[in-house]
């Protein structure tokens, strides 16, 4: 999600109505029956409230004026019955609406998750992942709130209010007119407050997600934070953010509660005037006390729904602002769709060819006229200084990004013309930082190929020299790993990710060798696992180990986004003044100890 811009702060009422329509149309359709029952229950609640106000006239007149005990008892019986009905109707509508609300949240979470999967890798490197996650969880509830607020306030509050006003007019039309005069200025005052609340709410959401994002970044990068003793700077940065968010929240509280004193004062005035008028009419015109009692009850009962209706716009806007962010995300077009006539990839030799490939992440060119061939079944090592564009080359093969110029072919097929899914099915990728997902060891290997049998998983683990340490774990293959699981060493994690690539059994292996030093034993195990993974496949490897480079059939030397030399270890090492020869000389003394660049 992009950072908010000023234009988004001006959520005009047209946009709000548009968003409301969309939310109601999308969700209303799927829950028609649930909402219908909830609305019936809400209507029952509203009508029974009005009935209670109306019947007060009869209670008072029968019991205290006519002194008719039987009638009074009958009326009281009906009041009891109506309260019971109102209780049940209230219960059912609340349970139904909560159920639908939870379902809405679940469905949007699923929708967002699967939508995120369709967005290109480029989106995720632009978006701040921590901020994104925080915003999503905060904003999905906006959609539920829009639905529930709309339903409860129209079906219950508005109807209750209207029927109570009906009772009031029925009992004393003159008095009722007085209220019609008071209402409009009150409404205008509330509108003014709600306008200011809107922009404050949006700012608060953005600030909060900055705070959460900054915290998550610190947690993820804690070793860097400590190593560079960045604690103080980060702390003062986050302190500023937290203070800003706190002040914004205070402002929201002030603004949204500003309705309170206003409404209370008006209510006090209205009730006091009512009783003064009632006393006057009872003394002068001898109007029955039941009429006033019923009128007063209606008025008191109307206060609550009126207050909720007054707050409705504010709440609805807050919910719509939240929901809007969700829709901004959902409306984002996946950037690389398959072409309409895309075909599945047919692999014969798994020969990869880069032909005149140019690429830029933004405006700065990162690759310039890169051409080379990775022959089928052979290992091609990419070497060169950091920033030369080696990772970018690797990332173009699974189409994480598309080249800006030139093309990439696999067995003569332009990868832009084939479906992304079939392309990626023929690729296995082992990254520098082995990533383990929430789940068991078995699950993590199986992500390589979901239909792999347990036997195949074990075989892959053996080939990746991982079986023994897996069996030593408390629950063997069923030991949970990931964020909440057991802690594995760097070498063990690498071997698991190699097992994941092996079980995939793809003809092409993309490999970013780890630069981080492992202890000698792990290093040897990882190396053996890699040898196993590389044999018989087309391998494109970002090589950091001299041994890998020496054994590669082809070496592609890159510098500043261009291919500067090509050959094998013998020919390149001999070349006078070549970049590889220089790198090789630099590396030699190190390579014998710990093969790092
Ligand atoms: P290498 O793997 O050889 O170190 P990379 O392919 O990672 O090189 O990077 C090549 C250039 O592209 C570098 O200048 C790097 O800063 C830039 N770069 C890499 N990834 C991104 C990205 N996601 N967005 C913007 N620039 C990037």
From TrEMBL:
Ranges for the ABC transmembrane type-1 domain? 36-318
What's a Pfam family in this record? Answer: ABC_tran
Where located?
Cell membrane
* SMART domains according to UniProt: AAA (SM00382)
Record carries keyword rRNA processing: no
Which GO molecular function entries does the Swiss-Prot or TrEMBL record give?
Answer: ABC-type transporter activity; ATP binding; ATP hydrolysis activity; ATPase-coupled lipid transmembrane transporter activity
Q: Which GO terms describe its cellular component?
A: plasma membrane
Q: Which residues cross the membrane?
A: 32-56, 68-89
Membrane topology listed for this record: Multi-pass membrane protein
Q: Where is the ABC transporter domain?
A: 352-585
Keywords recorded for this protein, A-Z? ATP-binding, Membrane, Nucleotide-binding, Transmembrane, Transmembrane helix
* Top-rank taxon, per record: Bacteria
| Family that this chain belongs to | Belongs to the ABC transporter superfamily.
**Function per UniProt:** Part of an ABC transporter complex. Transmembrane domains (TMD) form a pore in the inner membrane and the ATP-binding domain (NBD) is responsible for energy generation.
What is this protein identified as?
ATP-binding cassette, subfamily B
């Amino acid at each position: 999600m992009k950072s908010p811009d000023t234009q988004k702060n001006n959520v005009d009422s047209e946009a709000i109505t548009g968003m409301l329509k969309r939310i109601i149309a999308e969700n209303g359709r799927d829950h028609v029956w649930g909402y219908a029952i909830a609305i019936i229950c809400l209507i029952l609640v509203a009508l029974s409230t009005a009935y209670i106000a109306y019947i007060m006239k009869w209670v008072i007149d029968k019991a205290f004026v006519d002194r008719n005990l039987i009638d009074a008892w009958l009326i009281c019986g009906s009041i009891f019955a109506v309260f019971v009905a109102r209780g049940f109707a209230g219960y059912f509508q609340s349970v139904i609406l909560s159920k639908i609300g939870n379902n809405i949240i679940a469905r949007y979470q699923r929708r967002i998750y699967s939508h995120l999967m369709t967005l290109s890798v480029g989106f995720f490197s632009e978006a701040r992942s921590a901020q994104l996650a925080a915003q999503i969880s905060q904003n999905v509830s906006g959609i539920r709130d829009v639905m529930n607020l709309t339903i409860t306030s129209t079906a219950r509050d508005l109807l209750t209010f209207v029927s109570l006003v009906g009772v009031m007019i029925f009992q004393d039309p003159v008095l009722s007119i007085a209220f019609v005069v008071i209402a409009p200025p009150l409404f205008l005052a509330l509108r003014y407050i709600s306008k200011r609340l809107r922009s404050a709410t949006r700012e608060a959401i953005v600030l909060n997600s900055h705070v959460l994002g900054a915290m998550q970044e610190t947690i993820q990068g804690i070793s860097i934070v400590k190593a560079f003793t960045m604690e103080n700077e980060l702390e003062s940065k986050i302190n500023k953010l937290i203070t800003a968010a706190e002040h914004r929240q205070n402002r929201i509280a002030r603004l949204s509660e500003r309705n309170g004193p206003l409404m209370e004062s008006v209510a006090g005035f209205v009730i006091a005037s009512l009783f003064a008028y009632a006393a006057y009419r009872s003394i002068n015109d001898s109007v029955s006390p039941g009429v006033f009692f019923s009128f007063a009850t209606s008025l008191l009962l109307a206060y609550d729904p009126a207050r909720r209706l007054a707050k409705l716009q504010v709440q609805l806007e807050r919910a719509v602002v939240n929901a809007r962010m969700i829709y901004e995300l959902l409306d984002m077009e996946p950037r690389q769709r398959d072409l309409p006539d895309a075909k599945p990839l047919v692999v014969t030799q798994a020969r990869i060819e880069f032909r005149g490939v140019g690429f830029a992440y933004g405006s700065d060119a990162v690759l310039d006229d890169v051409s080379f061939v990775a022959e089928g079944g052979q290992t091609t090592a990419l070497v060169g200084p950091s920033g030369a564009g080696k990772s970018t080359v690797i990332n173009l093969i699974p189409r994480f990004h598309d080249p800006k110029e030139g093309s990439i072919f696999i067995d003569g097929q332009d990868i832009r013309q084939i479906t992304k899914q079939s392309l990626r099915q023929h690729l296995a990728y082992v990254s520098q930082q082995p990533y383990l997902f929430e789940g068991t060891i078995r699950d993590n290997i199986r992500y390589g190929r979901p239909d792999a049998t347990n036997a195949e998983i074990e075989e892959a683990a053996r080939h990746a020299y991982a079986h023994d340490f897996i069996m030593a774990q408390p629950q063997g293959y069923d030991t949970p790993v990931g964020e909440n699981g057991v802690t594995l060493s760097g070498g063990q994690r690498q071997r698991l990710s190699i097992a994941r690539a092996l079980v995939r059994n793809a003809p092409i292996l993309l490999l970013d060798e780890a630069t981080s030093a492992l202890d000698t034993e792990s290093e040897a195990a990882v190396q053996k696992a890699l040898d196993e993974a590389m044999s018989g496949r087309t391998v494109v490897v970002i090589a950091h180990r001299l041994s890998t480079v020496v054994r590669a059939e082809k070496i592609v030397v890159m510098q500043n986004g261009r291919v500067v030399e090509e050959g094998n270890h013998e020919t390149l090492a001999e070349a006078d003044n070549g970049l590889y020869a220089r790198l090789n000389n630099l590396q030699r003394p190190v390579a014998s100890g710990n093969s790092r660049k």
